[in-house]
Amino acid sequence: MMSFVSFLVVSISGTLEIPPLFPPSFPSSKLLTTRQTLSPSISMDTKPNPQTSTQLRRSTRLTSKRIPTITRPSQPVPKNKTRDIEDCFSQDEADSVRAALLRWYDINQRELPWRRKHGCGCAGDAKERRAYEVWVSEVMLQQTRVATVVAYYNRWMQRWPTVHCLATASQEEVNEMWSGLGYYRRARYLLEGAKSIAKEGRFPRNATELRGVPGIGNYTAGAVASIAFNEAVPVVDGNVLRVISRLNAISSNPKDSSTVKHIWDLAGQLVDKSRPGDLNQALMELGATICMPKNPNCINCPVSDQCRALSLSRLETSTIKVTDFPPKVIKSKQRLEFAAVCVILVQNDSCENQKHVTENFYLLVKRPEKGLLAGLWEFPMVLVAERRTDMESRRKEMDEYLKNLKLDFGEEFNLVSREEVGEYLHIFSHIRLRMHVELMLLTTKGGLNQLENQGQDCQVVWKFVHDSTMESTGLTSGIRKVYNMTQEFRSKQMSTNTQEPKSKLKRMRS
Ligand code: SF4
């Protein structure tokens, strides 16, 4: 019935770019001036002089104002800028923060599967196992909530309990296991990293070696080295950045590389030599559970006495809030793109043991092995211009695309319907992709075997997937939403169809 020829590569452009970086519009020097009054431990005076304090408080009133959102274009930061003493923690401050954090963490840490220890003074294998667990959990936790990660982590560890087991997995299997977590690049790097470690024969044991593994950067290297191998190195993730920005009332742009370096230096000052892993986890835990972005729980915070943002917010007539730190950076505007998506569903009717059986299969195409969402499966999708988003134009573009798949259904297949399902807006970091979704339903009685050897000379890889395995197939998160949307559409259709005879019957009776 339909014949589809040649090739076309689908592209949802949407790389995860960081928006342009901007400098602070509030001079940190003004904030730092106030700190000498607020925190006597860093003052050159052994005792605060009440008169001086009053004067400084007055000057604080003059300078304390709302920290505005950063909007101005970036200016170069002098490379050899020397750091002021106020930019760092004093020895006393670092000691107090460290002690308070560890005390708090010992009592309040959450029970999480990746925190289970494998005995004290772990032997080599146990340490490697812990390193692998920390690595997997930290990668999963990037951009994903703890509550979501726990189930994924447990399933992952059941399937690949060691780095050597993971190294034997295929990308397809890893994508399936990752399905639903999003940011699939993380899964690809985990597999590449595992293969590289297995090839070397041993797990790297310090941050420097760990950074040599594909996909492991400063953050993951610091987490694994400090938690599994007790190396005194810092870790800075979004939570730590927020906590340290508030502790030190840092008002510079958190996306600026000089600010990030400053925060890493401060985290390095805090790291505990005997319990580096616990200290790092305490900082992260504090950011996740107490020092939250919108509603920090300062009353129950173990380091509130050392928090400069809190002190500033409590100054008489101050309009500063702790949530002003770190300052917000306005994101670059996202561009809007449009795509036509065609969900092709083939229903195969057969007879088994004198029973009528209907099986559903979906057509999926594989994204290119390199680039955004590499190697993942999606429904046939083609980008369209905004002026061509009407149904007729979209279908024309989609038909062209489908021809390129070199898929010939022949006469064994019947086109039952082609209906509009609706729109779904998928948000990437700098793209809003509006997907116009349609459902094409075909039926056959002869099974799908006849399609098996088709499309071999096509540059786009495609396959039919039984609906029972759709849940475990590595789909992009946008396509999974489209799939759910189509399922809802079909169940509504089916319930309408089953209700129809009843209403007809009612009408006949009346
Ligand atoms: S006192 Fe408040 S703002 Fe400061 S670190 Fe604690 S929770 Fe965060």
Automatic annotation (TrEMBL):
4Fe-4S in keyword set: yes
Gene Ontology CC, one term: mitochondrion
Keyword Nucleus: yes
Signal peptide: 1-17
Record domain HhH-GPD: where: 140-289
Subcellular location: Mitochondrion; Nucleus
Major location (coarse): mitochondrion
Cofactor: record remark: Binds 1 [4Fe-4S] cluster.
Cofactor(s) essential for the protein: [4Fe-4S] cluster
Catalytic activity: Hydrolyzes free adenine bases from 7,8-dihydro-8-oxoguanine:adenine mismatched double-stranded DNA, leaving an apurinic site
Pfam families, sorted: HhH-GPD, NUDIX_4
Function summary: Adenine glycosylase active on G-A mispairs.
Name by which UniProt lists this protein: Adenine DNA glycosylase
Organism in which the protein naturally occurs: Rhynchospora pubera
